[in-house]
From TrEMBL:
Domain NAD(P)-binding stretches: 28-344
CDD domains: GDP_MD_SDR_e (cd05260)
Pathway involvement of the protein, from the record: Nucleotide-sugar biosynthesis; GDP-L-fucose biosynthesis via de novo pathway; GDP-L-fucose from GDP-alpha-D-mannose: step 1/2
Record carries keyword NADP: yes
The protein, known as: GDP-mannose 4,6-dehydratase
Organism this protein belongs to: Lactuca sativa
Cofactors: NADP(+)
Functional note: Catalyzes the conversion of GDP-D-mannose to GDP-4-dehydro-6-deoxy-D-mannose.
Superkingdom of source: Eukaryota
A Gene Ontology BP annotation from the UniProt entry: 'de novo' GDP-L-fucose biosynthetic process
Swiss-Prot/TrEMBL keywords: Lyase, NADP
Molecular function per GO: GDP-mannose 4,6-dehydratase activity
């Protein structure tokens, strides 16, 4: 497959040259079915890329977040997104698809990404998040060695959870102190990436992204759990919401903004590591106040504390210093905290309304929520 480096004309956005190319750039995304994968796919398709995504085999399809941009591959002139079965626990599949696709850019977004769940399945979390990243980097190194395609660029999705108990604000120079198996695994993936950059000269970047949310966020993450409950409570499908630590403070941004930073990292002349954050911190309680208040409800009437949702080791306060990314990449967030909360609540109120129609017609129950 062509490397996608022939260029015809260009425009400039955020100081980065966007290319109208006769041979499309090719991107490979692990975790394409996740929140970030879907937004990144949209961004790259808009920029003219051919996008390949690796998905795990499951008896149930898990492509809801990208169904709206999926085009049947038989429609060869329009289908610029293609999906392939692979897994970060399967080194042979990673190497096979890198060799077959010959990507220009690789974005490693796949992970067991739920912090609380990582305490329950630590072995699996480490295998996918840490060793899975190592497998992908080694597959890329081997591909470059045998093909000579030294221009291939790699993005590793890091996490603010790596900072753990280190006091804010956290920047690229802040020491890591992970407080969960997930965070420790992300630290390993981060240093694997640095090592392969230094040892083999691979263009490999770490994006240390602080919490980023959207209407596509998984429903077992606290922000989406809250906005789903707000919608259901407002429509009358639910009355209670059970949460853990309301004083945990996070730097919350919009996932659609953050994937642009990922892309910008791989358009630079040299690889580096960048913190991506809004530089504002808000507690879970503040999120509750904004979300419930937006629809005229008092969160205290509906929220109950359940100790099962407390982590064995808590992370109290994450707040990023993204000055390096803002200066070097020309990136800054477009969506603020209050706008993000309203965006998510609006979507989940509409989702609850659709649920209500099905419940009233007897096609589904209210999932036996209290």
């Amino acid at each position: 497959m062509a490397s996608g480096t022939d260029r015809s004309q260009s425009t400039t956005t955020n100081g980065v040259e966007e290319l109208s190319i006769s041979k499309r750039k090719v991107a490979l995304i692990t975790g394409i079915t996740g929140q970030d994968g879907s937004y990144l796919t949209e961004l790259l398709l808009d920029k003219g890329y051919e996008v390949h995504g690796l998905i795990r085999r499951s008896s149930n399809f898990n492509t809801q977040r990208i169904n709206h941009i999926y085009i049947d591959p038989h429609n060869v002139h329009k289908a610029r997104m293609k999906l392939h079965y692979a897994d970060l626990t399967d080194a042979s599949s990673l190497r096979r698809w890198i060799d077959t696709i010959s990507p220009d850019e690789i974005y490693n977004l796949a992970a067991q990404s739920h912090v609380a769940v990582s305490f329950e399945i630590p072995d699996y979390t480490a295998d996918v998040v840490a060793t899975g990243s190592l497998r992908l980097l080694e597959a890329l190194r081997s591909h470059i060695t045998t093909s000579g395609r030294t221009h291939v660029k790699y993005y590793q999705a890091g996490s603010s959870e790596m900072f753990g108990s280190t006091p804010p604000p956290q920047s690229e120079d802040t020491p890591f102190h992970p407080r969960s198996p997930y965070a420790a695994s992300k630290c390993a993936a981060h240093w694997y990436t640095v090592n392969y950059r230094e040892a083999y000269g691979i263009f490999a970047c770490n994006g240390i992204l602080f919490n980023h949310e959207s209407p596509r966020r998984g429903e077992n993450f606290v922000t989406r759990k809250i906005t789903r409950a707000v919608g259901r409570i407002k429509i009358g499908l639910q009355s209670k919401l059970f949460l853990g630590n309301l004083q945990a403070s996070r730097d919350w941004g919009f996932a659609g903004d953050y994937v642009e930073a990922m892309w910008l990292m791989l358009q630079q002349d040299k690889p580096d590591d960048y913190v991506v954050a809004t530089e504002e911190s808000h507690t879970v309680e503040e999120f509750l106040e904004k979300a419930f208040g937006y629809v005229g409800l008092n969160w205290k009437d509906h929220v109950e504390i359940d100790k099962r949702y407390f982590r064995p080791t808590e992370v109290d306060n994450l707040k990023g210093d993204s000055s390096k990314a803002r200066k070097a990449l020309g990136w800054k967030p477009k969506v603020g905290f209050e706008q993000l909360v309203k965006m998510m609540v609006d979507e989940d109120v509409e989702l609850a309304k659709r649920e209500k129609v099905l419940v009233d017609a007897g096609f589904m129950d209210a999932q036996q929520q209290p």
